Structure formats: C-alpha cells, structure tokens
Amino acid sequence: MLRQWCCAVVLFSAGASFAKPTYTCEGPAPVEIWKGQYGKYKVKDGLESKEYTGFLKREKIKLQDKCSLPILEAGDVLMLTYPEKAPIFDEGNMKFQCVESDNPEKALSYDSLPATGVANPPDLLLKCGSDEKYECHDGSNSERREVLEAKLKKKKQEIYSISIRNPDLPGDIAYRETVGKRIFCQFYNSKTKKVALAFEFNGVKPKAAE
Length: 210
Prior knowledge:
Blueprint: E1 4-9, E2 23-26, E3 32-45, E4 48-61, E5 72-73, E6 77-83, E7 94-100, E8 103-107, E9 115-118, H1 121-124, E10 126-127, E11 136-137, H2 141-155, E12 157-163, E13 182-189, E14 194-202
Parallel strand pairs: 5-14, 10-11
Antiparallel strand pairs: 1-2, 3-4, 3-6, 6-12, 7-8, 7-13, 9-12, 13-14
C-alpha cells in the first residue's frame, strides 16, 4: 500500500503577498532527485571523436517538504527516482497542471508545459570515453538502455524526468508564454485528489529593448 501524506501545503513566492494553490501531498516521495541540464559531450577514439547528448551538470537536490521542489529555472532538467508504480507514473489518473503563480486562473497552454515522462536511459548512463565524470558504459544507446533498465528493475525503481526548456533555444519557441513569469506546476491525481509533486519555475527574463 502506498504511503500518503496527510498535511496540506501552502507555498509562497519570495516577496509575494498571495498564496499558491493549497494541496495535500501523496507519497511515496522520490528516492533521490538530480538537477542538471541536457548538453553535448564528446567521446574520443584515437584521433576521432563523436558527439552525444546526455544529462550533464548534475547536482543532487532535496524536496522542500513532503512533495514540493525548490524553485527551478528555464533550462533545468530533473531526474527523479521513484519506487516502481508510484502514482506519478499513473498516466490514467495523473494530470500535469501549470498556472501562472500570481494568477492561478491563468493556465498554461499545452505547448508551453515543461516536457515530462519516463527518463531516457542513454541520457543518464553516458557513453564511456568522454571527460564527464559520471557513470558510463561502453555500449550503444540500446545497450546502455538495457543496462540501466536492468539495474532499476533489480532495485524496483523507475526514473521520471522533467525538462523546463529555455525559449531562447532553437525549438523551444512555444515556451515564450512563460517569459518573465513565475509558473506553478503540480502532478495532480484526479482519483485521490492529491498531489504527487509540485514546483515553481522562473521563465527567462524578458530581453531588454535594443
């Protein structure tokens, strides 16, 4: 039986006079949380080198309370390790909802939501031969996927990813709806009426007029 947290949580932005939506947390909490960014890294083979994309600039972070994260920034990527079949993986009942923090009635359009879903194993288990100091495996993308999935299965765990992409980067123009704003997001279980995870993030600052 999954553990459920009993207490309601109210979040406040620094310097703000309004309260964030009130919610009740639903466990279990993540086993561990890593914050970083997607980036390119090179694997050298003699005089040759090949470029790969992976989860870089990693730092371990903790929940602020039972289910809320520290404030995030555009470009941040999270990797959250959960027990298997945790509520956040329940696609049938879990809803990912985001609103403007200072205007909770203003929901973000679908195209502006951060990207979420089960993590891609090759992003986490890097290819050996680079200067990155993370765990690696000298195999293809599919082989690295199999290795990490086997390791997680043994531990009865899964990894969930959240990517708050930067609207200043190519391909992320849809995120311009968040520029200059702070956004509140939650993973809401429509069956239990509880929240598995909640966080705020700052959209990029508006560019100064030229």
